[in-house]
């Protein structure tokens, strides 16, 4: 995919009808969907649990580089009378001809290689967000899915929740008046300081070289392993990409926009300056558009974010403000300018509906049915990466839509991840 093709996809993303298909659960019997799960410890396990609730779906194999977790999950499935093969190398799992669908729940730095290899092997894919750990990886993943005609759903399950759709539909009525500012945020009070730990020997049963993959070779450290990997630039992008892809996604959908004119960011390790993490625990990013701005905020160790919510997106209009998060939505009016909309709570299970949507698209062989297609996942991951790049460079950066890069050459070094240990970017 060249940069002009990618911009064309970004333009498509401004059309809300692309995302909001019917949220009715698929009632027809799906084809035989046989799943292999890569990365079984966290969100991947939740994904598998959700998809196995659908009739006609089975799990044939699990893969993880930590044999301790792998054995635990195999045993848990056995208690449900589900017998699976187990792998420590995902490439061997992909050779299994019985498997036609892959779930990827590994750390971010592995998503690109595993997703591209999976579609090359003729599998459909559910890949966790953010889909890549760099802008160029995201572009490659879109190109691979397109070339191999794969059904690829991204794990942004809020796109399958009815109350998100209802809130955006209300926004698009124009009753808020001119929206001049959109705020999106994630305040995570339970995410405490990460104590500094000494490097240690690789634990028995952990295939550490396979866990590192294309990331820089470093001694084993528990801080960089399960879950906490997301606070290190080698593997992820901190709260900006962990939560930003969810909340900023709806900021863009609500405003029907794609590419910003510019982005700037500031923050740092302001809560826990001496802990082990690298990514900022406190950060603000401002994305400039033609007639409004989108502002991102995140903070670890604090729960009281804007409007008393620890996460959300707020559309601030001349007549009132619409506040939306996973719990529901409401409209807070400016005095005398419009009627309030009382809190509208969420009433469904977003992850389960998202998996229903994925299965429906596979069964009907129609990627246009997907609520979070690979193009959408790539677009918002790139948008979030822009904020991180502005933070890491300390500059106000101007985005060139035609070239899909920044005006600042030094900042463009962050467009692509640097691969190590003999790994190279996948060939499409």
Helix-strand layout with pairing:
Blueprint: H1 3-12, E1 33-38, H2 43-51, E2 57-63, H3 67-78, E3 85-87, H4 90-94, E4 101-104, H5 108-120, E5 124-127, H6 135-148, E6 152-154, H7 162-171, E7 179-188, H8 208-212, H9 238-242, H10 244-255, E8 262-268, E9 282-288, E10 293-300, E11 311-317, E12 320-325, E13 328-333, E14 341-345, H11 350-364, H12 374-393, E15 397-400, E16 405-406
Parallel strand pairs: 1-2, 1-4, 2-3, 4-5, 5-6, 7-10
Antiparallel strand pairs: 7-11, 8-9, 8-15, 9-10, 11-12, 12-13, 13-14, 15-16
Helix pairs in contact: 5-6, 6-12, 10-12
How would you sum up this structure, described in words?
The structure is a single chain. With 428 residues, the protein is of the alpha/beta class. The protein has two domains: 3-160 and 350-378, NAD(P)-binding Rossmann-like Domain (Rossmann fold), CATH 3.40.50; 162-347 and 384-406, Dihydrodipicolinate Reductase, domain 2. It contains twelve helices and 16 strands. It has helices at 3-12, 43-51, 67-78, 90-94, 108-120, 135-148, 162-171, 208-212, 238-242, 244-255, 350-364, 374-393; strands at 33-38, 57-63, 85-87, 101-104, 124-127, 152-154, 179-188, 262-268, 282-288, 293-300, 311-317, 320-325, 328-333, 341-345, 397-400, 405-406. It has a ten-stranded mixed beta sheet. The protein has a six-stranded parallel beta sheet with strand order 3-2-1-4-5-6, with helices on both faces. α6 links the parallel β5 and β6 (152-154). α5 (108-120) runs parallel beside α6 (135-148), α6 (135-148) packs antiparallel against α12 and α10 (244-255) packs across α12. The longest helix is centred in the last third of the chain and has 20 residues, at 374-393.
């Amino acid at each position: 995919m060249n940069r002009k093709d990618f911009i064309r996809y970004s333009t498509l993303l401004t059309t809300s009808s692309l995302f909001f298909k019917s949220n009715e659960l698929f009632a027809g019997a799906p084809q035989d969907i046989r799943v292999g799960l890569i990365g079984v410890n966290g969100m991947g396990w939740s994904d598998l649990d959700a998809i196995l609730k659908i009739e006609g779906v089975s799990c044939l194999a699990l893969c993880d580089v930590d044999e301790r977790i792998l054995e635990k999950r195999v045993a848990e499935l056995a208690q449900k009378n589900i017998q699976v093969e187990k792998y420590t190398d995902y490439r061997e799992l992909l050779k299994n001809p019985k498997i036609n669908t892959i779930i990827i729940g590994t750390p971010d730095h592995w998503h690109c290689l595993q997703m591209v290899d999976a579609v090359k092997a003729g599998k459909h894919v559910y890949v966790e967000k953010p889909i890549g750990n760099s802008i160029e990886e995201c572009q490659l993943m879109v190109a691979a899915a397109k070339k191999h005609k794969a059904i690829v759903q991204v794990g942004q399950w809020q796109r399958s929740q009815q109350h998100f759709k209802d809130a955006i539909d209300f926004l698009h009525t124009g009753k808020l008046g001119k929206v001049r500012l959109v705020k999106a945020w994630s305040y995570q009070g339970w995410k405490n300081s990460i104590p500094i730990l000494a490097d240690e020997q690789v634990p028995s049963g952990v295939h550490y070289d396979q866990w590192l993959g294309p990331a820089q070779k470093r001694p084993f450290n528990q801080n960089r392993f399960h879950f906490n990997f997301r606070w290190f630039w080698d593997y992820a992008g901190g709260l900006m990409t962990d939560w930003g892809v969810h909340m900023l996604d709806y900021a863009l959908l609500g405003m029907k926009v794609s590419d910003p004119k510019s982005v700037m960011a500031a923050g740092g390790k302001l809560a826990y300056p001496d802990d082990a993490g690298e990514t900022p625990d406190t950060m603000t990013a401002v994305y400039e558009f033609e007639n409004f701005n989108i502002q991102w905020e995140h903070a670890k160790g604090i729960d009281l974010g804007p409007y008393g919510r620890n996460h959300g997106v707020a559309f601030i209009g001349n007549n009132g403000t619409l506040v939306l998060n996973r719990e529901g939505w409401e409209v807070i009016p400016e005095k005398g300018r419009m009627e309030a909309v009382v809190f509208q709570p969420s009433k469904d299970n977003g992850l389960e509906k998202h998996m229903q949507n994925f299965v429906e698209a596979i069964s009907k062989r129609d990627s246009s049915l997907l609520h979070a297609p690979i193009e959408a996942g790539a677009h918002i991951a790139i948008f979030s990466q822009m904020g991180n790049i502005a933070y890491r460079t300390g500059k106000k950066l101007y985005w060139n839509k035609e070239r899909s890069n920044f005006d600042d050459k030094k900042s463009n070094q962050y467009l692509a991840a640097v691969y190590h240990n003999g790994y190279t970017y996948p060939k499409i």
